[in-house]
Automatic annotation (TrEMBL):
Reaction(s) the record says it catalyses: [(1->4)-alpha-D-glucosyl](n) + phosphate = [(1->4)-alpha-D-glucosyl](n-1) + alpha-D-glucose 1-phosphate
EC annotation from Swiss-Prot or TrEMBL: 2.4.1.1
UniProt-listed Pfam families: Phosphorylase (PF00343)
Gene Ontology biological process terms in this record: glycogen catabolic process
Name of the molecule in the record: Alpha-1,4 glucan phosphorylase
Source organism (scientific name): Hoeflea phototrophica (strain DSM 17068 / NCIMB 14078 / DFL-43)
List of residues that carry N6-(pyridoxal phosphate)lysine: K674
Required cofactor(s): pyridoxal 5'-phosphate
Function: Allosteric enzyme that catalyzes the rate-limiting step in glycogen catabolism, the phosphorolytic cleavage of glycogen to produce glucose-1-phosphate, and plays a central role in maintaining cellular and organismal glucose homeostasis.
Keyword annotations of the record: Allosteric enzyme, Carbohydrate metabolism, Cytoplasm, Glycosyltransferase, Pyridoxal phosphate, Transferase
Localization, UniProt: Cytoplasm
Family: Belongs to the glycogen phosphorylase family.
Amino acid sequence: MISKSALADLPSPAPRSADPDALAAEIIERLTYSIGKDAKVAKPHDWLTATILVIRDRVIDRWMESTRQTYDTGGKRVYYLSLEFLIGRLTRDAVSNLGMLDEVRAALGSLGVDFDAVTSLEPDAALGNGGLGRLAACFMESMATVDVPAFGYGIRYVHGLFRQQMSDGWQVELPETWLANGNAWEFQRRESAYEIGFGGSVDGIGANPAETQRCVWKPQERMVAVAYDTPVVGWRAKRVNTLRLWTAQPIDPILLDAFNAGDHIGALRESNKAEALARVLYPADQTPAGQELRLRQEYFFSSASLQDILRRHLQEYGDLRSLPDKVAIQLNDTHPAISVAELMRLLIDIHRFGFDAAWEITRKTFSYTNHTLLPEALESWPVPLFERLLPRHMQLVYAINAKILRNARLERGFDEDQIRSVSLIDEGGDRRVRMGNLAFVGSHSINGVSALHTDLMKQTVFSDLHGLYPDRINNKTNGITPRRWLMQCNPGLFSLIRDAIGDEFMDNTEALSALDAFAGDSEFCARFAAVKRDNKVRLANLVARRMGIKLDPSAMFDIQIKRIHEYKRQLLNIIEAIALYDQIRSHPERDWVPRVKFLAGKAAPSYHNAKYIIKLANDVARVINNDPAVRGLLKIAFLPNYNVSLAEIMVPAADLSEQISTAGMEASGTGNMKFALNGALTIGTLDGANVEIQEHVGKDNIIIFGMTAEEVAERRENGHEPRPIIEASRELSQALTAIASGVFSPDDRDRYAGLVAGLYDHDWFMVAADFEAYADAQRRVDALWVDEEAWYSRTILNTSRMGWFSSDRTIRQYAKEIWKAGP
């Protein structure tokens, strides 16, 4: 091992030039000697790879410098554990953050290559599902930007989340082959490989039966986790951090005896088991096999990450007792919650700490971010499954639980109901291990992601744990990186803002507030509107190419893009579109506002109602888009295969942002922030971060409707009866009758009978209850739209007042108040 002093004396490579001519020469050199292509016959993907390799060299210089600095100063590192990192395309992000966008564009231009065309070929990394994964990606970029030394840990999914296609309006899941042609941004680290076990037996060491007893776990199955590193570049390349993703490899790739005996399939069973772990994000878990694979994935990446963290700490400091002083581990939702039990196992069984000492280190090292109040998302695992796969961890969960429950009963006087609530084991029905509770008790900090969500955590899912540990829950409202979600995805607006207020907002997004002075400026409003129209033309052209639907960019672009889920209420949006369709046909004499409703998002493969909502959207679109009586005043487009790159086109084009979740069910949202930053008005409920967005942009610059979280809870508690509400609303009842009777599904008139019946029977997500308020709010939007200058004045104020919602601000709060890391 090289000493710190020797490391400091090693020579550094000469800085690489940012001159366009030098860049062009390097690109040709890489094209020739790394890819083996003559420039005369090179294809666009060859130019992309050559460009990445040249840019990567400059990133590596800063990456190594950042690593040396942290190693030399002994700074505290943050480790962000997340099952998702929805990073999207990396090339433009890296070039922009290096401050070399103009130079690289010029270099490629001198070679006859278009930068935008080439970088558009880069595949989206299929490592996330939606907001959770995109937040993790924004946080990684912001940690580098604000100079917090950090590693992100996750899984290098071969296919990740599925690629969504439409077949007659139905969602079809296909493998997303983002790694088919390799990934020029990543580096395999063969030396960072760790053994991961499952199943087997546990033997005690010594005769002491106490909970502090060390044990030897003898797994029945073993595999190896191997690291792949991707550099994450901060703004102005102040720091480059590391995203380390794990892939699984078998210890014995092939059982030769079985192969030679003719069992060719059985000979590969160990290899197949290992490969399955890193194959797909969120395998369908409606079957026992799917649940087992999901738990295996979570333990696999958690164990590999913790082994890596401890190895690095011991290499630098030699003593794990200082772990909380030098290491902060953030659990991004419950997926890595098994890390609490795994760190205890490593400390007790491998590094010989007593139980109490190990628990003290564990609790001080971990912090946990909760992203949901939905019970099904607060993961729990059947005890038999957990015990069979992770027998030593089951022992430790029971030991931790005993400690917690003794404290709750003896020191805090908890009654039986409270004991049942805080227990790590759910005894109601089949016994299950509660991962949310495990993450809570094993962390010194538990944060929500919006002010409302944090308050509801204290009142609902963690009310008794909050009573047991009243100082642990805190709020850290989410944010987004303005580099990706303004500077890169909306260059027209970025240039307009820069011309108006200068460059300060590029380093401090709250300086966007200077735009307030331009909200009443007619000339600036016109230029703002022109930028919006250009973005709408770009989206309209994309829809025409992909879907054959012709759209008018002068129409209002009304966009809802997010995971398809009943609580996000895409169904409410579709039903209101049907009611509007009926009104347009019934009252052709009125001056209707032309509107295009866009929807995009993926439904979990086993979530049948969500899939029916996608099909309904496509069925309704087919009818409305082809009805001449509508006169083109209303069109609907469901765009397939929603991902980061598609969002980067849709967000800047939005006039209206749909944030209409059932109040009290959306933890925060980040799409709401992206749309508002890019000059869209929000129509939404007082849910998640909408509450804080309203506080920042002002009540006149957001359209709020519907019940509050308290009103939703009260109505559910008192027995919500949706049928009288539906029957009292002419527009709602007619729309539901049309859906249920097969107006939009003539090939199967009963297709949506069950979906509609759910609204009449229980309406858990308050679609019927909020319909009239939503429809009224949409007509308020129409009234605002007709006054163009007033509309754009409001949208400018949205952009100017969204600076607080930067992920830089969020990360600074995490670093100061939870991690105690960074400058």
